[in-house]
Amino acid sequence: MSAGGAGSDAHRSAHPSSKVRGSVFKLLRIVFALGLLALVAYFVPWRDQLVYSQAGHVSTVPGTIEGNWRDDTIRFRVDADAAIAAGWPESVEQAVAHHTSLEVRRADLGSDGKLAGFDWRPGMLRVFRGLEPRGLFFALVLIVFGALVAILRWQRLLAVAGCVTTYANAFRLSFLGLFFNLIVPGLTGGDVVKAVLVVREHPERRADALMSVIVDRGLGLVVLIGLAACVTLLPASLMPSPHFKELRLPVLLTFTGVLGGMWLVMHPWPRRMLRLDRLIEKLPQKERLRKLDGALRIYAHHPFEMTIAVLLSVINHASLAFGLYQLGHAFGDTQLSYLEYLGIASVANTISSIPIAPGGWGVGEAAYGSLFHLMGAPATLGIAVSVTYRLISVGLGLAGGLFLLMPGGRKVRDEIHEEEEKESAA
Predict the structure, then answer these.
(1) pTM for this one?
(2) CA–CA dist 96, 81 (Å, integer)
């Protein structure tokens, strides 16, 4: 009895420490996200800027755009106290000296894909003030449609795992997951809530229900990386910007590595060579890992359903990219094509899916801003598109909270809290 009591005391003493470590880790993620957002905000041009490129050298000067910044020709008034470096055209120096605005025309891309001449970068506030509501509405519709397709994919994956449910129920669980991902700081993500709730509904197939959530998220990520790889391999005739070639090698290496890892885990021959089953037997919580491993291999025996899931993932990501394309045009972008938005969204969303910041905030803005700049569009525009997309996602998550106001909402909250306590104690 005393030994059992000692073991129980040890478990109780370890449990608070694990919760403290988890809380510290979550706090560090929030601090990291805030720091990254602050860094992005520091480098974002909040004021309008005139840009001059010549022989590979790029200079900027602050001022005010007079007219519509979307036009190919504008008037720009340089700040009176701005320092004009050597190399600027004489017309700029004269405009500054006489405190007048000058007319500038946007330069065309050279044979190397770079601008040679004038360009301008609107400040972030100007970009948001010019947002067209019609484009925002179409973007919202497309993003919601993509979410509905993703829910259909998960419903079908649940059926493959033997956890049959209706689309309405999968919809409810998915939006509850989005809500708790935003509101409850004690959970690691909306996928955790989805897993908890679906496990509660299928207690006899706990591992299968949990694995459906993991496979759903993993499959979506694999297809996202695959789309990025496809875009980098497109011929120059279909891709106006040549800069995606710079991303080809890292994207292809990532995609090849992911496919190789899936083959090692799923195919019988490498499993035998690597002795994965023996390895699992030596790991902590081997019983749980064995069940999850068995649940994962269920999907290998349903190639038709997995093909449908891949196609649904492609539709989901293509719809999202089209929504971002509409957002970009609502902000005034006229430079980037849909295929370029598809490539940018695939790469940026892959990067922001790395769980180093809550909801990808900060990471996504840095990725979108950098990729827009790489494609020759203003980084300000990329950051505005990313921020608006995340705000739409926040709105969808808040809408998911409406399910808690319906009958049975309190029971859902209690079940999530109870399951979280059980997982923490395991």
Answers:
(1) 0.75
(2) 9
